[in-house]
Write a structure and sequence with these properties.
Belongs to the UPF0758 family. This protein is an alpha+beta fold. The protein has ten helices and five strands, in the order H-H-H-H-H-H-H-E-E-H-E-H-E-E-H. The radius of gyration is 22 Å and the shape is elongated.
Length: about 240
């Protein structure tokens, strides 16, 4: 009698690998993607049921990747090594998206910048303010989180933001923050923050090009696209004119 193989799922995982090599990620269901990621942590374990349970609990692939470790631990069959695999691939994706935009001309790559911001802010339970610093040709220098917590005109320190812009020799900025509630409509505080930063930047010849609000899923509100930036430029222009 032949001895039963120790690793019963080896054939299944090999079929998934072959499927990816032949057809790409588009041929995979979200459950299969999660299963493969989990197997990176425990390559000799059957991760199919844990993947299905995680998807059923959180509802989508992004939600699984964004889930906190303590939430993932509640999934049957999900251990520390599996969670490490999920968190690691999430971190790799975030770094890839961030580095991909460096050197790109913002006006031509606004969608890629938005993709990075969505990925870096999606699923956060608190607000963060990220600044994308641009050079004189509006190419991306880098992006940094400059504030966490409640993001409004009373909690942002413009001096520190401008100090960093000067250190990087930035000529323009794009700011972005998330609304954990998922709402995209800018508040009066959001508008006031944008006016203040635009005005401060004007004194130092640093242009504020846009303010993005990241909502739920892949939704983004752009002050520039909505026409709010042109209104803010006009308001600040009148104010600066009266000072001159």
């Amino acid at each position: 009698m032949s001895e039963e193989p120790q690793n019963k799922g080896a054939g299944h995982r090999q079929r998934l690998r072959d499927k990816f090599l032949e057809l790409g990620i588009e041929a995979f269901t979200d459950s299969e993607v999660i299963e493969v990621l989990l197997s990176f942590g425990t390559p000799r374990s059957d991760c199919k049921e844990a993947a299905r349970a995680a998807l059923a609990r959180f509802g989508s692939l992004p939600a699984v990747l964004d889930a906190a470790p303590q939430e993932l631990q509640q999934i049957k069959g999900m251990g520390g090594k599996n969670i490490f695999a999920l968190r690691f691939i999430q971190g790799v994706a975030r770094r890839y998206l961030k580095q991909r935009i460096v050197g790109r001309q913002y006006l031509r790559s606004a969608r890629e910048v938005a993709d990075f911001l969505i990925h870096s802010m999606r699923g956060l339970k608190h607000e963060v303010l990220t600044v994308v610093f641009l050079d004189a040709a509006h190419a991306v220098i880098t992006s940094e989180v400059v504030a966490e917590g409640t993001v409004n005109v009373n909690t942002i320190y413009p001096r520190e933001l401008v100090k960093e812009a000067l250190r990087l020799n930035a000529s323009a900025l794009v700011i972005a923050h998330n609304h954990p509630s998922g709402a995209l409509k800018p508040s009066e505080q959001d508008k006031a923050l944008t006016r203040n930063l635009y005005l401060l930047g004007s004194f130092l010849h640093i242009s504020l090009l846009d303010h993005l609000i990241v909502g739920e899923g892949d939704t983004v509100f752009s002050f520039a696209e909505a026409g709010l930036m042109s209104g803010i430029r006009a308001q600040c222009g009148r104010l600066l004119g009266s000072l001159g």
